[in-house]
Design a protein that fits this description.
304 residues; 0% helix; mainly beta; 28 strands; 58% strand
Length: 304
């Protein structure tokens, strides 16, 4: 049985098919879960009672269910090609999985691990997020520069919204009224940006240029401050949304990708795929506490 609690962070390591368990008191990796070879485990979410983990595995087009009490994989379901991000709907018990290479969303019964539906979306869907009541699913389509909006009752796509170039990751704000979409950039000719969408009207509120290659976004104690990873410059920015400008930045590990705030709102964490570390940042004073070595190519962050 794994000792998983509110002081635990779980990191998915795509390069060696493992999950790293980090204790947020000692700030070190205390255990590692070894999954099956050639999974490429990209993203992980938990169930409502923190008994099960659901893990997307791009290399074999599956999602597996890991029992934290039995300490083993207990079920696997095959979805679309190259499943990346997933989200669990607390309202209906369904998992929604973005399949980047088959341009679809798989709907999976999380309890029975049965595929319920395949929903076509735009090209290269990568990230998925639910609105606050679970009635709508938002999907970032990287190649078609759109956001698909899916009704989770009917499993039908209702809208496709242009949200600027290369939407990759996104974050719903605290009250659920705005969606922050990261428009990443793999060209030296232009900057990346953050697109802000009104989730009720489904209209773009703002677009703010930022950095070189922004990858992910989150927020902390100050509702007007966004924290954004930049993979090319190896930094995390603080963006003041009201003033529309960067007010601070800090260097982290190499090629930072994912970003999350821990459950106590004390630390900011980034996964750094360039040097296989997780950076721990003091959220209040905004300084780098330490870099923790984890598995190869850390991607997803789960704060219990």
């Amino acid at each position: 049985m794994r000792n998983i609690n509110a002081l635990t962070i779980i990191i998915s390591n795509a390069g060696d098919d493992t999950l790293s368990i980090i204790n947020m008191i000692s700030l070190r990796e205390v255990a590692k879960i070894f999954l099956k070879k050639s999974f490429g485990s990209h993203h992980v979410v938990e169930d409502l009672c923190s008994k099960f983990l659901y893990i997307s595995n791009p290399y074999n087009s599956s999602v597996c269910k890991y029992d934290l009490i039995l300490d083993m994989i207990i079920d696997t379901v095959y979805v679309g090609s190259n499943p990346c991000h997933l989200v669990l709907n607390k309202k209906n018990g369904s998992l929604y999985v973005a399949n980047e290479d088959s341009n679809s969303i798989s709907v999976v019964d999380a309890k029975k691990m049965i595929l319920q539906a395949q929903i076509p979306v735009g090209e290269m869907p990568h990230d998925v997020k639910l609105n606050r009541d679970g009635s709508l699913l938002f999907v970032c389509n990287f190649k078609t520069n759109t956001l698909s909006v899916i009704n989770t009752v009917t499993n039908q796509r209702e809208r496709n919204i242009y949200v600027n170039q290369n939407p990759y990751h996104m974050r719903l704000n605290r009250d659920g009224k705005s969606l922050y979409i990261v428009n990443t950039n793999f060209s030296s000719l232009r900057k990346g940006s953050i697109t802000i969408l009104d989730t009720k009207e489904l209209k773009i509120q703002d677009k703010i240029e930022i950095g070189k290659t922004p990858m992910d976004v989150t927020y902390g104690l100050n509702k007007d401050h966004l924290y954004i990873t930049d993979m090319e410059l190896n930094v995390v920015y603080i963006l003041d949304r009201k003033d529309r400008r960067i007010i601070d930045s800090i260097r982290v590990g190499k090629m930072p990708l994912g970003i999350e705030v821990d459950s106590r709102n004390k630390y900011l964490l980034t996964t750094n795929i360039g040097d296989n570390t997780v950076s721990i940042i003091d959220l209040k004073r905004f300084y780098l506490v330490k870099n923790i070595k984890v598995g190869k190519e850390p991607t997803g962050i789960l704060c219990i």
